[in-house]
Amino acid sequence: MAFPRPKPTTVETLAKERTNAPFNVRKLSIAMHGSERALVLKEKFMAEIARHPAFKLADIHDLSKDELRERTMEKFASMVYFVTTESLETFQLRMQLIGIADPSFWTRFGVAYGLFLGALRSGATPNQLSYWIDKGVLGLNGVIGCFAMTELAHGSNVAGLETTATFDPSSDEFVIHTPHLGATKWWIGGAASTATHAAVFAQLIVGGKKWGVKTFVTQLRDTKTFTLMPGVTIGDIGKKMGRDGIDNGYIQFTYVRVPRAHMLMKHTQVSREGEVTEPPLAQLTYGALLGGRTSMVADSSNSAKKALTVAVRYAAVRRQFSSGKNQLETQILDYPIHQRRLMPLVAQSIAIGFTALKLQTMYEDMTQALDTLEPGDPNLNETLDKLKETHATSAGLKAFCTWAALDTIDKCRQSCGGHGYSAYSNFPLMYADFAVQCTWEGDNTILSLQAGRALIGAWGAAVKGKRLAPGVAYLGIPNILTAKSDSSLSLADIQKAWSCVAANVVKKATEEYLVHLKAGKTKDEAMERCSQSRFIAAKLHTVGYIFAMFSAAVEEMPNNPETDVLKTVCRLYGLWQIEELQGYFLKYGYFSPAQMDKVQDSVDTLCAEVRTVAIPLVDAFALSDHIVNSPLGRFDGSVYESYFAQVQASNPTPKEHPYFNRLIKPLLERENTTYEDAEGAMGLDDELTEMAEERKAAAEHKEGHVRRED
Amino acid sequence: MAFPRPKPTTVETLAKERTNAPFNVRKLSIAMHGSERALVLKEKFMAEIARHPAFKLADIHDLSKDELRERTMEKFASMVYFVTTESLETFQLRMQLIGIADPSFWTRFGVAYGLFLGALRSGATPNQLSYWIDKGVLGLNGVIGCFAMTELAHGSNVAGLETTATFDPSSDEFVIHTPHLGATKWWIGGAASTATHAAVFAQLIVGGKKWGVKTFVTQLRDTKTFTLMPGVTIGDIGKKMGRDGIDNGYIQFTYVRVPRAHMLMKHTQVSREGEVTEPPLAQLTYGALLGGRTSMVADSSNSAKKALTVAVRYAAVRRQFSSGKNQLETQILDYPIHQRRLMPLVAQSIAIGFTALKLQTMYEDMTQALDTLEPGDPNLNETLDKLKETHATSAGLKAFCTWAALDTIDKCRQSCGGHGYSAYSNFPLMYADFAVQCTWEGDNTILSLQAGRALIGAWGAAVKGKRLAPGVAYLGIPNILTAKSDSSLSLADIQKAWSCVAANVVKKATEEYLVHLKAGKTKDEAMERCSQSRFIAAKLHTVGYIFAMFSAAVEEMPNNPETDVLKTVCRLYGLWQIEELQGYFLKYGYFSPAQMDKVQDSVDTLCAEVRTVAIPLVDAFALSDHIVNSPLGRFDGSVYESYFAQVQASNPTPKEHPYFNRLIKPLLERENTTYEDAEGAMGLDDELTEMAEERKAAAEHKEGHVRRED
What we know:
The structure is a homodimer. Chain A is α+β, with helices and mostly antiparallel strands and about 700 residues long. In chain A, about 55% of the residues lie in helices and about 10% in strands.
């Protein structure tokens, strides 16, 4: 464009924001990534995919579902090299990055490696694992796996799945069968057109008896011709809200036979003779599900940071309204209300990021303990405690972090005004892709209630003076229920506030539960009856936990300018969430109404403070323009030029109007028809004509009147 | 499908929910629609479009943007008959229904009739109006209009628009010009490929002086050939989050000449000699914008009701988890937490519906007053008061009602679990289409602040004992600031609670404003500084206002079973919102902590109570299966059969796999390659192989060990 640009340009405005940052952006970035190695690796991954044609992102908003799916498959080949050669830790960091660059591919890939391979890792015997590795599950040269758990009528309730796997001793096989429509396997990522095998969850039936849900590796398609195996019916389940690059499908089995050896038998075994041996500890089989949740906490932070990178940069360069005539308009980030819209969300994304680092460590410890566990192990109880804590903690975190991230994406979109609604802002896709995180791997509400149930248990333990897991140790602090603020609003004061209020709501949930128990309800019924209070307990506990993880991480850091800014951010997070949930802090008297006004003032002040470093702060999120994929969030600030260029590139003018002759011309050239009004009422045309005439008459009358007065 | 169905079927379950409703569904429906006539008309509109091929909805999830746009244009012709023959009132009801059936078409149609024609109605002189009617704006036979206000760099700040319209006295023309990229008209619905004329908002420049933003009807395309007029550059702005059926475009004007008579001159006139006459009351020119906001309150209620119809019916038929072995699983609507997720939202959608009916009346009164207003009118002050109240009230309502509806749609989606993520559930499109309502016609946050500014003004008036508009009369109730609950939680108690707390937060915002004023800030600066408190004031006032409208409507109704259920719903709405915003009620002491616990208990109880009539209640929303367009929300309850049928119909199996040979086969048949590990670390393949070997060794060792012990 040869247009002149108004001064200062958006590029100049953004550059100015980067001068005089009171901290070193790279050092801060390393702190937020957990290590320099993690940051350097991320930069390497970003550079690699930015140059790989399959990872082109600029055009994805205009691709059809079918085109997106084909592109997903193009990415597979490029990743096999890494999965087979990189250490698990490195590969996980790579996948974390892919998760925010391309959630569809991340999922399809995760189905093959996280879920299908994960099912083998946690459920196969050593011989079975070797067998499937030899078949090619790692290199995909022979087996491309998918994970067939969910059914049309059963999602959350895995134990209620209705697909059957009946042992036939005459042939030493299982017969996999879909008994009715509701038992159709549904949502199965990769089933529609790319998987050869599935890990099928089905009710084991041996000798006419049901033994619960087990996993059966079942071949879906011939690996040479890709035709469906006999008895396997597969359909495409089509368009979704987002992640259209995954080929989700449905599967119906009609008496499909699989060898007995294809049931994963690490935990439960079925012998040649049809004897069933059950595992001593059924809960150990669920450990593998927790990996997904853990990675979703990190993904929540990263996705929120991606959205915030766009919203904060755009708010810094967008100017709207000037305070005086002909003055330069104000950067919208300088409006207190806009700081209120974005700065707390920045703080939250950072808080969740630090929590994810801690949770990852907790998860790895637990996995290691589980992997090496044998029956009769002396560490069994300790390992079970670890599993229990990781289970409860990750349930609450998965729920509230994914909700927070989804909310952040939409608030960022709204903060960008109309342009946030353009596909090219990337918010619409971010939202649509992320939305499913609140549902899969456990519906958020249900997971919150699980976390709440564990908290009720923990309160019982606290009352009895039992040893408490670190995450709920605050329940045992003496007099925590009646603690009061010292008015300092320091990190310690904030921490105490969360401990006090979380303890109170956990206590309230427990009391309600006990009232229902005493009234004769079963445990399950009593739990249902107190579910609202249980939900509240989980919410306050989880937010307090995130604050605790963030504040612990900050306290461990050396005294330097980077730590200083993180301390400010941490206070903002803690106080803003207190403000959001102020009812509980007032109800339990930790803060007085006057102190709560001070909390509001402090949040105002902290928002203004964080705003001054907002651009270097989001720069430290270290997300490349390629990953962010939004002209509004360009690192160099050239938002309007980039946006205009992308809109033009994505929407070339067609040579011929696609429907002018068929639809518009007949409308424009239509003869005026006088329609009869079916209702006998005055039509809009009559009304408008009458209005025009009345006004003319009035104007003439007045004119006449004025003249007469002259 | 020949599958057997489990008993009771979903159809039987839903039918059972309709037996023994304690009220007459049709009578309740009439009450919620405002009149029997409104309901009957709606049913007629629904029947008409259900049979019209252009309004087919079952396939829209799989149409491309280009196909959606073409279909939008197909609908135009079918509507012209109605717009020219129906009364405005009937036509508005028709559009309200179209608004939830097909938001894209509603918008494109609204651009032509609501915005373009609206600009003419409010801005044209009588002669100008006649001229454009003769040209064909009503029947679209000659003029298809669009509304060119927003620019790339200016949305909210209309006064800051940068397109110029410079008067050239030599030719008696205006020269419309886009001075730089940021001034490009952007988002213009209909510009990309369907409009012939635009109402262009531009800075009027006469004699080198700027006179502010006025409207200029500018021809974009030749009506015979549809080629662009000289100097007009138009591009397509492409994919959006939703409403892809609208052809939004950008427009750049390069010294485009329009006759002087094409400036709309009802308010400001430019004479042949270049004399500019300005209107005595500039604020009167903004009245027309309020129509959009008013209709958005009704649309918020209707959109929320559509989403809730799906979520509530699905929750009634979906069963998950049984309380005992082999027992029938529980309907998820019977879980207290699921009632908590949906019943308050049902109450809110009804509350907003009644508010919309009241607001519509207020808006019509005001429009009538404005239409007949002449300078020097004795009713001028009263009319200005009405305009002011409608402006402030509609600003707050637009913001909080659209937010509430968007939130409802997403919560409904989440409440349906995984299936809510399927495009065919219709939630994804509902969300994507609705999302823009929070942004256009005034960003919600900015509108909230406008409402808050008006409240600060009203508090000032209350303190001075001045007459208050009905909507803020509560600010003048003696001792309202220190009112206390009588513990009854009756409608009157709830009303007093809202008045008390809203008055307190309005007072707080005012006090903050005054502190900043006294500290020497300008009025605008002081307003910015107190924006968080202003926002809170607007929020509490608006929710209280919605409650007041709902409760007033219910109090006016005759004593009968329909009114009884609405009273229950009204209490649920009021108490649930108190619980949501409990901090303020505790802070200002209207409720004690113990009373607040009682509020929570009451909300639990009311949720359970409304649940018993949930199905007949959503039936009374009177939305046809065609409009709802979601198999999960089928009236007859055949959710899984309908869902499966739609998935199959929308996704036929392709004859040939689209990319098996190109992408999958090479992957499957690849030779095993041993990659060198670049990092020298252990790759995942090594790790897994090692793990398998270790386990084997451990198992053998143990076996040996056990044998030795034998």
